[in-house]
Amino acid sequence: MKIRRSNRLVDITRYLLEHPHKLVSLKSFSEQYGAAKSSISEDLSIVKRTMAEFGLGKVDTVPGASGGAFFAPRYSKENAEKVVGELVTLVDDPSRLLPGGYVYLSDLLGRPEILREVGQLIATQYIDADVDVIMTVETKGIPLAQAVAMYLNKPFVIVRNSSHITEGSTVSVNYVSGSSKRIKKMELSRRTLKEGANVVIIDDFLKGGGTMKGMQSLIKEFDAHLVGMNVFAEGQFEGERLVSGCTSLIKVTTEEGPNDYLKAEPGNFLTRVFTEGEN
Amino acid sequence: MKIRRSNRLVDITRYLLEHPHKLVSLKSFSEQYGAAKSSISEDLSIVKRTMAEFGLGKVDTVPGASGGAFFAPRYSKENAEKVVGELVTLVDDPSRLLPGGYVYLSDLLGRPEILREVGQLIATQYIDADVDVIMTVETKGIPLAQAVAMYLNKPFVIVRNSSHITEGSTVSVNYVSGSSKRIKKMELSRRTLKEGANVVIIDDFLKGGGTMKGMQSLIKEFDAHLVGMNVFAEGQFEGERLVSGCTSLIKVTTEEGPNDYLKAEPGNFLTRVFTEGEN
């Protein structure tokens, strides 16, 4: 097959989408397709304009000998509002209420189309941040952390609740579960997090913030830095949370009683990430 | 922006990659871009030829009023051999040996570029199979199950080791851990798996097969069907495994002693999935 512009556009688009945030040199594309750098440059302009037009992300070009181009997923405000609206509709269902004010979300966190949208949404928040690694705690935060990691193209690490033989040596911290007030232990394999790493924490649900605070302690133990915290859903909590500054996609208010009550609404994500007038 | 063919090619490629195995009607593309169906049809031919040429998957068109096109990721034999070779090189490192013949893999299973390749690789095996859901057991199987689910565009469910309040009502089974011979319990939320569902099991590591057999029992309890089983790595095991027919990407042989020994080699995946002469 002779590789024409049309074929190059398809494969360049595929490559950039599969390798977000990775700088690719014009030279490597040029060699791959047997095309002049000037042609590749025009291809990239077309991809850039298309992604911008559809509100999906930016293609940035870095000039110079070691330069090239990379794609960074970034939802427009319009797309972000659409996704948050969908999530609110999906969660706003009293049959999701579980004892203790918890909310059943496992079905949503196992659906690829939702994880893709949520991953791109949260990645938008960190598009210009210096992130080295995504951290989550087992079990239900994992799919979200992985989805965000895919779109930031950074590794994710899983904090475990107890010692597992297949992790090797670990660092552990105690933390107070904000909801149950019980003292628990969480730990992370020593090999997985480097000193000085910039960490984004992702979890499924925020109540008292005890688990979040535990992960913050672990980050300190590893001499790493916290860049930000994000949860899928924020529940109600009486009193002061153990952490502040966490971003939530949706907010859920519940009441157990003769008539179970559950109301979902947008969390603070949209107002935090999109300042007024921005799109 | 006037939407030209070049812009359509970029966005159609993006859409198909983000929605694998999903049939999209020519009509919806036609309306989205304000282009004639005949033009969309030509666009799809270009995408199809490009994906085939680079060994990345097939674009199939379904004729008729309810027809359309879909993209199914499928690695060529050449790409599959390359990925398995990379995995062997990454794992073939004695410092990965852990006590009890276990192998440290958590770093690899947290790297997006590896999960993308492994997801496409395993999805290739089930390209023409009727799969409804991917099943795994917490914790280390989750990233792999999610990666496969993303490329098959099917939901995944997580079997838990003990009861968790946020799962609602569950079905549980006992199983014998093949390595430790201890009896354990695993359970799955009742809401997550439908009767008659076709299930693919994904896990990180196979030794005695006890965990796999436990998941098979769960599938029976839900009156669902097992389509196939796949692990990232197969370890050595003396005696007969509790399950047969599981596919492995790599095989690891280890020996603990004064000089730790670890050898990685390709598992049975390539010979199982690519019959002779096929590419």
From TrEMBL, chains A, B:
One matching Pfam family: PuR_N
CDD domains cross-referenced by the UniProt entry: PRTases_typeI (cd06223)
Keyword flag Transcription regulation: yes
Chain ranges of the Bacterial purine repressor N-terminal domain: 4-73
Domain Phosphoribosyltransferase: 111-250
Subunit and partners: Homodimer.
Protein name: Pur operon repressor
Protein source organism: Limosilactobacillus alvi
